[in-house]
Amino acid sequence: MKTYLLLPKRFELKKPILVHLTKVQKRLAQPIEIWRSKIES
After folding, report:
1. Cα–Cα distances in angstroms (integers) from residue 5 to residues 2, 14, 23, 31, 39, in the given order
2. So which domain of life are we looking at (predicted)?
3. Structural domain of 36
């Protein structure tokens, strides 16, 4: 998710949305990791 750093300045206003999306991704990532470990074991 570092690609947004390359976007032009007019996307500055969208940063809060991107931050929110990264928080959602992190929240979803944990259950996915647990689910993966259950499948692998």
Report:
1. 6, 11, 17, 28, 35
2. Bacteria
3. 9-40
